[in-house]
Amino acid sequence: MEIIESIVKMHQRSEDLRLSGQTLALVPTMGFLHEGHLELMRVARRHADKVIISIFVNPIQFGPGEDFDTYPRDLQGDLAKAGEVGVDIAFVPTVKEMYPEGFQTEVAVERVPKHLCGLPRPGHFDGVTTVVAKLFHATKPHLAVFGQKDYQQLTVISRMVQDLNMDIEIVGVPTVREPDGLAMSSRNAYLTPEERKSALCLKKSLDLALQMVAQGEKRAEEIRKVLERLILDHPYTDIDYVSLCDPVTLEDVASLKGETLLALAVRVGKTRLIDNGLLNRDRGE
Ligand code: AMP
Q1: pLDDT of amino acid 284
Q2: How remote is the CA of residue 153 from the centroid of ligand 1, in Å?
């Protein structure tokens, strides 16, 4: 596997590959790779001739007091895992390479970031769209693969690509979970054994909501109340949001019609976890 740190070298490499007729897939990550990330790389492998991953903990998507400094990092371990799933190139720029002195440009999507995670984390998605736009320019992929675990991120990036006419196909991959249902996340490493047990309240909420919908419940507020109770019955939990919303605009809905997204953000101890799932009112009716 090739390791590239410089943007100029990355440009040249991608240009050469494109000129030789090869298709390129990019999987952007912040590292500390787990099975969820590796699944994205396997999907990328099936879609393109060459797989590029980026490993970059992006400072501008972290707010003041968030975990940028303590975010788990393990570059050597990550490179070994990526090599095992057949990644061809790891693009691993430094912060200085990505944001040299004088940097002052932002790519911002207007409305979708105003909901869900955008409320408690103002500016977060502007940091995400800015870095992803930069990674797209640096690596010149034909397609890019993202996880549905970060549903809002996937929506925001799809919007950016469409609005700015970027010639890149965006592929979404279903959430990869631990055997007991917890969505895999680099931040799970922060959980104590007791908090790890409480963290199951997210998946339990998704399952309970599906059950309520299957039994005919249509009132979003009713589902939200039941889930909030379930979550707060688990120790160490604090709710950022439980939202039943439109899967495209992410605006809250009052009543379930067609497909509705259930999106959750819960603090377990000091760790903020997210999860989501689609509730389909039409299923089986
Ligand atoms: P991150 O390193 O957390 O920025 O994530 C990099 C990519 O991996 C994003 O597209 C995430 O949505 C995706 N991802 C993270 N966790 C999972 C998971 N459990 N299942 C599927 N994709 C994931």
Answers
A1: 42
A2: 10
Does residue 136 line the site of ligand 1, with CB under 6 A?
no
Backbone angles phi, psi at 126, to 5 degrees: -65, -40
Which residue numbers in the chain have pLDDT < 50?
283-285
What is the reported pTM? 0.97
**What per-residue confidence (pLDDT) applies to 236?**
98
Q: What is the pLDDT of residue 51?
A: 99
Cα–Cα distance, 129 to 145 (Å, whole number): 14
Told to judge if 37 belongs to the known catalytic residues of this protein, a careful annotator would answer yes
Q: Is the CB of 149 under 6 A from ligand 1?
A: yes
Could you tell me if residue 284 is left (phi over 0), alpha (psi between -120 and 50 degrees) or otherwise beta? left
Cβ of residue 173 lying under 6 Å from some atom of ligand 1: yes
**Which member of 34, 37, 124, 234 is catalytic?**
37
Residues 6+ apart with CB under 8 A from 266: 199, 201, 202, 231, 237, 238, 239, 240, 272, 273, 274
